[in-house]
Specification:
By secondary structure, the protein is mainly alpha-helical. It contains 23 helices and six strands. Among the domains are: 60 residues; 309 residues, no CATH class; 60 residues, no CATH class. It is 47% helix and 3% strand. The longest helix has 57 residues. The radius of gyration is 46 Å and the shape is extended. 22% of the residues are buried.
Length: 668
């Protein structure tokens, strides 16, 4: 195990050594290029002097031309300028950017923590932190900044594809704007200097640190959470220097890390608070920027809701910086001369047509202007940042490396098709209004038709809409008619079957007998008992007519044809009630009951059903507002809940008293 760890450690050191060697070689190459450039300038100066002496002035080549041919500091050189440089594609297709469905969630600028901190610190302690290098966060917390979630969502939906981990490019109309460490530093005014092991500093754990962590009530291996610091602010009245540490930790937790209130922060960075001076001068701007960019890059903004960790309000102020005219109208700029843009705007929320107003802007700040070599921030090897030639080409084009100094952006540079395909959420309403840009260099105004054309188009739209509604209504009516016919057919079938059942119950015969009887009645067929075989097959036939048997006894039957033909007399089967095991009274009752049920079904009477209390309404004490006895399970109508019924009241009161006693014992 030890050997494996040692081998892995040696391998990592070896990889770092190779990376340093590569960087050293690139640096040496850059130095040689600079020396070559210096020699070139010196030779040109000599040539100019000779030309002036000879009165034969020869125009020397421009210095900027040389820079067009050389990407110093980026590790790439070219002898000729690129005629058609490649630029990054859109992240989402034009006009198909994700719509903002819900507000973006965030954890920065925790109001509860800042309020508790202001109450816990003295006026001198608050002023000391306010005037420190991290005081910009306290000043921002006092602004009551208006969070515009839609504005941030729109600018993220206009992104270009950028392979770099700590950089964003967005496209406003045809103009690209950048959000990088340079812009973050300009907006916040924080320390963003480069240091090794930025997010993993070596801090010695001393007794003073252990005591302070114990006061905070935090595990020694973890950093404090927002909830931990809120509780600590309530108990820090007797603290002295530790109250300042509590204030700096609150800034670190609420703005730099800005995680979920219950989540612990990184302990290695939080331990720096033991040395207040070192904590104040630490490059927290770089830490906050990296934390924010990691969260932004991994979010799927086409989902209905998402939450961004880190100091997300900087993105809104970045839009104000990039679009100054837009900021003057919608950002509510504060009076006074503010060196830090973060505290120069109050922000605004709930504004309409933000995207349309953004696309109308003509005065745009692409980025913070610096020397060409300083346009590319330096990152650690552990950050594993990728190179992106296409986004670098944007800066090179703006600095005149691919042609004229005043680069003009055209539609051909930004194809409308994006690289990200996503499925829109069901039920989402697309409320965005798509605006069209007129001309490559002209003003970006939305196309408005003439009044006559607008009226005609509105009439056409309304007519089509009404026709569509009418067709849908007719289709619905036709389907209802067909459904009613089908139900009538089914109802007739049911009634026919019920009649057959009633006849069967009345005659005591089978279904076949009832069917035969129905056919005989329809055809005017012969009476019952006409066939001798029927009488022999069923000796009990005619048993329901026992009341008339005494009258028919020994009475000769008359011929159907009045005796003109010698037809045999119909035979009648006589059944002795004393010897028969049929209960005729019960048969009569069953007949009556079946007829009653059949009539109820035909009349579509409501079937009797058992009603019970819902599980949430079941309670030992039912006669209250939330758990009533809705309908008693009896067949007596008008016997519902009686509020004056004192039956079983004592028993219910006893159950309720026992329940209250148990609750009291569990609480106390």
């Amino acid at each position: 195990m030890f050997r494996d760890n040692r081998t892995a450690l040696l391998q990592s050191y070896e990889n770092r050594l190779y990376a340093l060697e590569d960087r050293l070689a690139a640096t040496e190459k850059t130095i040689s290029e600079i020396e070559e450039f210096i020699g070139f300038i010196q030779s040109e100066i000599v040539g100019v002097k000779e030309a002036l002496a000879n009165r034969d002035l020869v125009s020397p080549p421009s210095v900027t031309v040389y820079f067009r041919h050389s990407a110093v500091g980026r590790g790439k050189t070219s002898e000729q300028p690129m005629e058609n440089p490649e630029f990054p594609p859109r992240l989402f297709s034009k006009g198909d950017e994700p719509s903002p469905l819900k507000s973006i969630g965030y954890y920065s600028s925790e109001t509860k923590l800042m309020t508790a901190l202001e109450e816990a610190l003295t006026q001198d302690e608050w002023e000391e932190i306010l005037n420190s290098r991290l005081g910009v966060f306290l000043k921002f917390s006092q602004l009551d900044f208006g969070w515009a979630s839609r504005l941030v969502h729109y600018i993220l939906g206009m992104q270009l594809v950028c392979k770099k981990k700590f950089e964003i490019w967005s496209l406003v109309g045809l103009i690209p704007i950048r959000f990088s460490l340079n812009e973050f530093k300009h907006i916040t005014g924080l320390n963003c200097e480069y240091v090794d092991n930025l997010e993993d500093p070596v801090v010695e754990i001393i007794d003073e640190m252990k005591d302070f962590w114990e006061r905070l009530g935090v595990n020694q291996e973890l950093g404090p959470s927002t909830e931990d610091l809120i509780e600590a602010c309530k108990e820090c009245g007797s603290w002295s220097e530790d109250r300042l540490r509590l204030g700096y930790l609150s800034i670190y937790t609420s703005y730099i890390e800005a995680r979920k209130p219950s989540s612990a922060t990184r302990a290695r960075l939080a331990r720096l608070v033991i040395d207040l001076e070192a904590f104040e001068n630490y490059p927290w701007g770089r830490v906050a920027f990296k934390n924010l960019m990691r969260s932004v890059k991994e979010k799927e903004i086409w989902k209905s809701s998402y939450t961004i960790e880190g100091f997300v309000q900087v993105l809104q102020v970045w839009v104000y910086f990039a679009l100054p005219d837009f900021a003057a109208k919608f950002g509510e700029p504060l009076p006074g001369d503010h060196n830090v843009p973060l505290i120069a705007f109050k922000g605004s929320r709930g504004r309409k047509f933000m995207k349309e107003n953004m696309l109308r802007q003509t005065r745009i700040n692409n980025y913070v202007v610096k020397e060409f070599f300083d346009m590319f921030p330096r990152w650690e090897i552990e950050d594993d940042d990728e190179e992106d030639e296409r986004t670098d080409n944007i800066i090179k084009a703006m600095y005149g490396h691919f042609g004229p100094k005043q680069w003009t952006w055209e539609r051909s540079h930004w194809p409308p098709t994006g690289v990200t395909k996503y499925v829109k959420s069901e039920g989402s309403v697309d409320l965005k209004r798509r605006s069209e840009s007129v001309g490559d260099q002209g003003s970006r105004k939305r196309f408005c038709p003439a009044s006559g054309e607008e009226n005609e188009s509105m009439v056409t739209i309304l007519k089509d809409h009404m026709d569509d509604c009418f067709n849908k209504m007719m289709d619905g009516l036709s389907s209802c008619e067909s459904h009613i016919k089908l139900l009538n057919t089914k109802l007739g079938t049911v009634e026919h079957k019920l009649e057959a059942v009633i006849l069967q119950a009345g005659t005591g015969g089978t279904k076949e007998d009832v069917a035969q009887t129905g056919e005989a009645d329809a055809e005017g067929a012969k009476p019952v008992g006409d066939d001798q075989t029927d009488a022999e097959a069923d000796p009990n036939i005619g048993s329901n007519f026992m009341s008339k048997q005494n009258e028919q006894t020994d009475v000769p039957s008359e011929s159907v044809n009045d005796g003109t033909q010698g037809t045999p007399e119909p035979s009648v089967v006589m059944v002795d009630p004393a010897k028969c095991d049929i209960d005729f009274d019960q048969v009569q009752k069953d007949k009556h009951e079946k007829g009653k049920k059949a009539a109820q079904l035909v009349a579509r009477a409501k079937s009797e059903r058992l009603r019970k209390l819902a599980p949430t309404q079941q309670s030992p004490f039912k006669p209250n507002n939330t758990a009533k006895e809705i309908i008693p399970n009896k067949n007596v109508r008008g016997c519902g809940y009686d509020p004056f019924d004192m039956k079983h009241v004592k028993q219910k009161i006893g159950v309720l008293t026992d329940c209250l006693k148990k609750i009291r014992k569990s609480l106390f």
